[in-house]
Write a structure and sequence with these properties.
The complex is a heterodimer of chains A (about 170) and B (about 200). Chain A is about 75% helix and about 0% strand. Chain A starts with a helix and ends with a helix. Chain B is an all-alpha fold and about 200 residues long. Chain B has 2 domains: about 100 residues, no CATH class; about 90 residues, no CATH class. Chain B contains 8 helices and no strands. The longest helix of chain B is centred in the middle third of the chain and has 44 residues. Classes of the chains: A mainly alpha (about 170), B mainly alpha (about 200).
Chain lengths: ~170, ~200
């Protein structure tokens, strides 16, 4: 049975200790799987649903909430991703005092590099899910190429990938 | 700064954010694009410089950067009310649609054809994320390239180390980010000081 309070705290923790839409994935993945509150496939599916639905990338968590705990889960997830954003008001107040220090700019750059590394780790996680074989890797490579060209709408890329999946795995 | 349009009313602000939330398919890039178009170009409530400044603050804040940006722009345009209205406009309609799609998915997830489609879509999300990562990396790579091979290499090593730490060492994300911030302050701070300091500051690693 899911304990709603702990469930909410896990989402809140993942959101508080993350920067950007997908970097809360590793933490949620660890915690929800350990508690048996989510299955491995829930994650790939949530990300896919999150990509298809409108709004910032970070809203994928809402579909994770819905898939694992219904409307309650979706609602708790929505609150959990909203609260940390309000901290920007504190950051904004504090940052104006220190922004011109060189170490602050260096640290910022370190954070930006870490964000890239974390994104790479998520890509790695997605491509190592059960059900992703060499054909899946090819699809990923194709999606990467089409995305890189910047000429193809993301919905078309996902549509093509779905079509490929339909013919390869049916 | 001269404002082209008068400050938005509550209902107008909600409508603008809702339309941004609902139109931004495919995640962050299109959301950022739509926010810039609405608030900077169309209504001129923000300058591009101001936007970049706010964005940097959002990067420093935990959670979803675009939601933090919604908070900051909301505050600027309408104080506490602006924050509440902007968040509601940005999140509620899109969240509702996300739930709807997830609900539909649950109904059909056991259909073999749907599972096959998702087996194709899931790796594609990986490929798309890689493009997102590359977009983030490009300005950093350009910066490192300008400063010389040393900084380019250091940047690459730091990025790889962060990915490695999460994947194989299972380190917590917050530890990785704090570690990178610390190393960054040691390695990159020299870039704003006179060149003489560069060699000395480049050493700790």
């Amino acid at each position: 049975m899911i304990n709603p309070f702990i469930y909410f705290l896990l989402f809140l923790k993942a959101s508080l200790f993350s920067t950007g839409g997908f970097s809360n994935l590793p933490s949620l993945h660890q915690d929800l799987i350990t508690n048996g509150w989510a299955k491995e496939v829930d994650f790939g599916q949530s990300i896919a649903i999150g990509q298809i639905s409108p709004g910032p990338n970070g809203l994928w968590v809402i579909s994770l909430g819905y898939l694992t705990y219904g409307l309650t889960g979706a609602f708790l997830a929505l609150i959990a991703i909203t609260i940390p954003s309000l901290l920007v008001l504190l950051v904004s107040a504090g940052y104006t005092r220190i922004e011109h220090q060189t170490w602050v700019q260096g640290a910022m750059r370190g954070v930006s590099l870490a964000v890239v590394g974390l994104l790479l780790s998520v890509v790695w996680t997605i491509l190592h899910q059960p059900g992703v074989d060499w054909k899946g890797t090819l699809i990923a490579a194709g999606a990467f190429g089409l995305g890189l060209s910047r000429k193809v709408n993301i919905l078309i890329i996902l549509g093509l990938a779905g079509l490929a999946g339909y013919f390869l795995y049916r | 700064m001269k404002l082209q349009d008068p400050r938005p009313g509550k209902w107008q602000l909600f409508r603008i954010w809702a339309s941004i939330g609902l139109q931004s398919f495919g995640g962050g890039a299109s959301t950022t694009f739509l926010i810039q178009r609405a608030f900077i170009e169309k209504h001129k409530w923000l300058s591009m410089e101001e936007f970049i400044y706010l964005w940097n603050l959002c990067i420093l804040t935990p959670g979803i950067n675009l939601v933090a940006l919604t908070v900051l722009i909301g505050k600027k345009l309408g104080g506490a009310w602006g924050i509440a209205i902007s968040l509601a406009g940005m999140l509620l309609p899109s969240a509702a649609i996300t739930c709807l799609l997830a609900a539909i998915f649950i109904q059909v997830e056991n259909v073999a054809a749907v599972q096959a489609v998702f087996r194709g879509v899931i790796p594609a999300t990986g490929g798309i994320l890689l493009v997102v990562g590359l977009n983030f990396a490009l300005p950093l790579i350009r910066k490192g390239y300008k400063e010389g091979i040393f900084f380019l290499l250091v940047s690459g090593i730091l990025t790889t180390a962060c990915a490695f730490a999460v994947i194989f060492l299972k380190l917590s994300v917050i530890i990785v980010i704090l570690g990178a911030a610390f190393l960054g302050s040691l390695l990159f701070s020299s870039k704003s000081t006179p060149p003489l300091y560069e060699e000395e500051q480049g050493e700790p690693q």
